[in-house]
Each structure stands twice: as C-alpha cells, then as structure tokens.
Write a structure and sequence with these properties.
The chain has helices spanning about 40-50, 65-75, 100-105, 130-145, 160-170, 220-225, 250-255, 270-275, 285-295, 295-300, 320-330, 350-365, 400-410; strands spanning about 1-5, 10-20, 55-60, 85, 150-155, 180-185, 195-205, 210-215, 235-240, 245, 255-260, 340, 370-375, 385-390, 395-400. The protein is an alpha/beta fold. The strands form 3 sheets. A 6-stranded mixed beta sheet has the order 11-12-13-8-14-15, sandwiched between helices. α4 (about 130-145) packs across α5 (about 160-170), α9 (about 285-295) crosses α11 and α11 packs parallel to α12. The longest helix is centred in the first third of the chain and has 18 residues, at about 130-145. It is globular and about 70 Å long.
Length: about 425
Amino acid sequence: MALAPKNTGAVTRWWWVRHAPVPNPEGRCYGQFDKDCDVSNEALFRHQAALLPAGAVWYSSNLLRARKTAEHLGRAGADLRELTIDPDLAEQSFGDWQGLTYAEISEKPGNGHLFWLAPPDFRPPGGESFTDLRQRTVRSIDRLTARHRGENIVATAHGGTIRAALAHAFNMHPEAAVRFEIENVSVTLPGVERPILQDLTFTLDAGGGIGIIGPTGAGKTTLGRLLVGIMAPTRGTVRLDGAELDQWHPDVLGKYIGYLPQEAQLFAGTVAANIARFAANADPSKVVEAAKLASVHEMITRLPGGYDADIGEAGLRLSAGQRQRLALARALYGDPALLVLDEPNSNLDAEGEAALDRAIRHSLDRGAAVAVIAHRPSALVALDRMLVLAEGKIAAIGPRDDILRKVLARPAQGNLVAVPGAMAGAKP
C-alpha cells in the first residue's frame, strides 16, 4: 500500500506485514493480550523477506507477536537494520472481551454482532471501538510519514491495525476492510477416499478479486461453499480476519456475505423479500439499490405489483435469466464484505453480462472481497487474480492475464473452453 504524505511531492511507501499465526484452537478473542506466534514456517518467511524493500525503516507494534515476526523476517534475509517500537500500531483493545471465545461473546446480551463486524463506533466494555483504532492508526501513519518523507516504511502489525490503515487509505467502509484466509484446506466426503479439495492455501483481501476456473469436477463449487461457510473443511482452516468461520454465529456472519450459487434459488414470496433475504425490517432503499446494481430494477417495475409482486414457488413465474439477476441482487443486498458468485453469467444475455461486470466492479471499488467461479472468461474481466483448480488442487494462481494466457494456450480440458478474443479489451 502506498500513502502520499501531506504537503510534499515525495511519496512515502508503507509496507504492512501482519504478524505470524497465533495458535488459537479454542477461538478466543485475544486483542492486546501479549500472545506468542508460530514462526516455524521458514520457507514463508524467506519468501516474504524477499518481497520487502532494502533500506527501509522498520516499525513494530509493542506486542510480542509483531516484534517476533519482524525479527524473524530479518533472520530470513530482510534488510532489517533497526526495529523501532510504536505502541500506536498495536491491535485493537477488546477490553472485557479479551480471553473469551467468540461464541461466549456472541451469547452476551445485546451482542448481535461479533469481533470485527461490530458497528465501527461500538466500544466493547473497557475496550476500543474500530473508530478509536482507526484514529490511533492514522495518528501513527501521519507522524511516521512526516518523519520519513520519501522513504519506505515496513510496519509489522495486526489484522485490525492493517484493516484501519486500508479503510483510511482507500476510504473503505469499515466493515468491508476484511481479510479471508484459506490455509491447508482439504475436503473429503464420508465414504469417499479421494478428497474433493486438497491442501488449498491462499488469501482474499478487501478490495481484491479472484477468479476461480477449472474443469468440471475440479472442486470449484465446493470451494465457493467453503468461502461462505456452507461447508466446513475436513482439514485446515477458513478464517475471517483471524477467526475461523465456524466460530461466528451464522446469523451474524450471513449479513456480511453475499452468495450467488450455481443454481439460482428463489423462494415463494415477493420480489423485495427475496432480494432482502426475507430479513425482518428490511430497508426498502437498500432493496432498490441492490436491484439497480444488478440492473433488474426496470424489469421489476414492469411486473404487476413491482417489488411486491409474488414470484411464485421457486420463482417459476420468471425466466432463467430474470431469476439469476434477482439472485444477483440478493447477493448484493446490504453491501457484503465478501461476494462469492458461482457461474453468475450462465443464463445472462449481453445486457446481463454488462450488468454483472458493473456489479463486480462496484463491489471491488467499495472494498469488498470478490470471488467469481466461471467457465466463461467474460465474467472475469474485472478481477485482478486467477486461481486454477485441477483435481481438487491449486494448479496455478497469479495475475489474471498471466494465468488466462497460459490456460487459453492449452488444449481445452473438460468444459474449460478456450474462447479466442474473450479477453480482448479487458481492463485490469
């Protein structure tokens, strides 16, 4: 992330490094508890050290896990000459929540949210709000940027601190600036010897998009279900800002995830209720906003009854394309922090595909993490990264154009089809 200092033409570049993993099998909120971290993955440290600039000034939070991470990066080859401690880079203080499991926090009266997804001004008892954290982080950024104009600054810090820095730098909605981590994930069905997914590891950051491609049976849909918490891994972990998905209450987590499954499913009821996921006291303005993002508002207004129209059982009164676009509006409802779309353009015409592209770009621009599973490359033009699955494993991952160039140069496998010119005019 690059941040320009105020009142000068020089650019001060910030290199944010999150601390190494903290073993947390019970799913406890540790915040500013001085927890140790696992620095045993020497190969990863060497890889990360090689990415960091030479001659940078280094800062760390005062917490052990951040300091230890910086020191191990130095031992792994990073150009760490001196490490300065800045307490303003510390993790958010969760006060009385610290030491409790996420389940214990969610059970407390009045907590309809958890951990990072609390409203930004919510202050846990005896702790800090996200707004407090953001102010503290920005104070550090401004102070150190003024001190080191035109230099590179490496900061080893925490998920909350980095989230606050991203929210400040890109003017993100606080609840969107999150990170999803998939670590050594495998899925095996009961009675089936061969895993559907095997040893998957990658990250999906706020404002980042990833396209997931591969032949039929590669495990793409299973991966999508893992990302949204419908399925749990047999081995490994799926985390939202450090907390495993099964540590979140489903009702809380669901508000921040938008999901369009491969088979768009609608339910008996009104158009508005389907878009709002049948939520009680749904905001009509957000329903209309989601419909406009999916470019289905005009179609809805032409229905007898408009948004109050009853679409029938499973939405059978609508065409396949109309159902898919309504399901897209449902996925977009409430500006989710994570948007997962599985074959979102399978029943769309050219107008629908253009609307889909606009919706994906809108989600990325406001800081959501977006994953799109697709066979047709036209659904992937707004994404910056690609992941290729083959036989349940990651066959390739990297920049979109590099991966697609390699894939489209190979003979077609299964229904992963090379489409000449599909990426013509695509913008990064």
